[in-house]
Amino acid sequence: MASKGFEPVDPVGIDDLLSDDEKAVRASVRKLCDEIAPDVPRWFEDGRLDDPRGLAKRFGELGLLGMHLEGYGCAGMSSVDYGLACTELEALDSGVRSMVSVQGSLAMYAIWRFGSEEQKQEWLPRMATGDAIGCFGLTEPDHGSDPAGMTTRARRDGDDWVLDGRKMWITNGSVAEVAVVWAQTDDGIRGFVVPTDTDGFSAPEIRHKMSLRASVTSELVLDGVRLPGSAVLPDVTGLRGPLSCLNEARFGIVWGAMGAARSSFETALRYAGERTQFGKPIAAYQLTQQKLADMAVELAKGQLLALHLGRRKDAGTLRPEQVSLGKLNNVREALEICRTARTILGANGISLEYPVLRHANNLESVLTYEGTVEMHTLVLGQALTGEAAFR
User: Fold this and answer.
1) What is the pLDDT of residues 322-358, one digit of tens each?
2) Is 298 in the active site?
3) Which domains does the chain carry?
4) CA–CA separation, 178 vs 56, rounded Å?
5) Which of 45, 370, 374, 387 is catalytic?
6) What does the angle CA 64 – CA 70 – CA 75 come to, to the nearest 5 degrees?
7) Phi-psi region for residue 169, left (φ > 0), alpha (ψ -120 to 50) or beta?
């Protein structure tokens, strides 16, 4: 078979490793993102989404919500398909990708994996279509990397549960119909399916963000929220529940970060060919070519790592430590690609007319959510040495 020409945006030929069906999934998500793209800079500048519920329904119509889950109206697609979708969504904006991944990999996954049949039937079909939005309440104002120290409490009162506490930095919180909330109980940490119209529940939106501005971020306030006994997730106790959900979301980040990096690299490559200084395009100068080459190398490495981990996940052989490695590397390198792309654009790089600084700002959040650099470093350190150094 004749070799294809060199592709600047795919220098090592990763597309040859994808099936036609996988490429079709990517193309369909990219098409939807292209339709949404003109609105994103304004959403970022305004610090709000115009119509988050309408956006969720558009994603639901394409089958993106919980797309890697089986049954209950979910698409049942592969992990690689989901990863490719995350790449396209984050090439649009990290905040938009966060809406989808929190819905599918955190809220829906928790119910799908640990919920009762009644809970699954009640929520998953509506969440898959975007008719119900979900959020995931784990992080607290004083407990981020150490969720075992959470102070949100659920106590028994007859046949009911009563929840009190606060959760912080919760994507989708103010627009959600259902929240999966993790709380301390006498039997350990348990998860609860909380309809957001329950008395005592509120979700004030967090304003004045400098990152993930095209996203709804909220605090969850639980003041004497009374739930029936059936609200608890029956099939898990302890941190295994929330941490397994986080691992699902981290997998999507491994892919998504490469979308932000690709968007910034493509922008810088195109700009370097068009911007003329001293009588020729800046792409003709050695220092610019070094930047472009370095970005291309790291982008290709990150994309190959994401695909490899996706194949392992589909084969059932992916380990949590490998997801930590992918998240640590790909977000860190994506952020560096975006920052380098900004330097190629010069002053234009700080303008919302171009996506690169928006991506860089967003990745500052992605770098620390779903596990900070320090936490993933220590996960890898423990796997490498057998010694836990978290305390």
Assistant:
1) 999 999 999 999 999 999 999 999 999 999 999 999 9
2) no
3) 14-129 (1.10.540.10), 134-238 (2.40.110.10), 241-385 (1.20.140.10)
4) 14
5) 370
6) 30
7) left
